[in-house]
Specification:
The protein is built from one helix and nine strands, in the order αβββββββββ. The protein has about 140 residues and is mainly beta. It has a single domain, classed as Lipocalin (Beta Barrel), CATH 2.40.128.280. A hairpin with a 6-residue loop joins β4 and β5. The longest helix has 20 residues. This is Lipocalin-like protein.
């Protein structure tokens, strides 16, 4: 009988814990516990028109080279990398800038130009952002 009481108490505790963790408020919508800081390699680009998403390999990624990337640093600076084989094989050109994140918005500033994206998905391994109908998918 004591074991049965312990099991019932345990089940009630789990139920209460689960209920207390649910968030019915939209104030944290777009927030995740996954960090946005890190080096992200672009793997897909495309569009989302009327809910239909079309993605393909990024034309900016040169065959045989590493993927172009953005490196979002903890101090809100960024480095973007572009591999190009026009002059020499897989030559890397980097650009510095800054970024900021507010909820589900990510603003990247490079060369004096700021672009704000909606964060569609952010996990430990994937970052998907959208600006208008343009979609970009990055992986770590």
């Amino acid at each position: 009988m004591k074991t049965k009481s312990i099991i019932i108490a345990f089940a009630l505790s789990i139920g209460l814990f689960t209920a207390s963790c649910s968030n019915s408020s939209d104030e944290n919508e777009g927030e995740t516990i996954a960090p946005i800081e890190g080096k992200w390699s672009i793997v897909k680009v495309g569009t989302n028109v009327n809910g239909t998403e079309t993605l393909s390999d990024p034309p900016q990624n040169v065959s045989g080279c590493d993927h172009d990337f953005i490196n979002l640093k903890i101090n809100n600076t960024l480095e973007s990398g572009d591999y190009d084989s026009t002059v020499s094989p897989c030559a890397l050109t980097t650009t510095s800038g800054t970024y900021s994140r507010a909820g589900s918005k990510l603003t990247l500033t490079r060369g004096g130009t700021s672009t704000t994206y909606d964060i569609v998905n952010l996990t430990v391994n994937e970052l998907k952002i959208k600006n208008g109908t343009a979609v970009e998918v990055y992986i770590r």
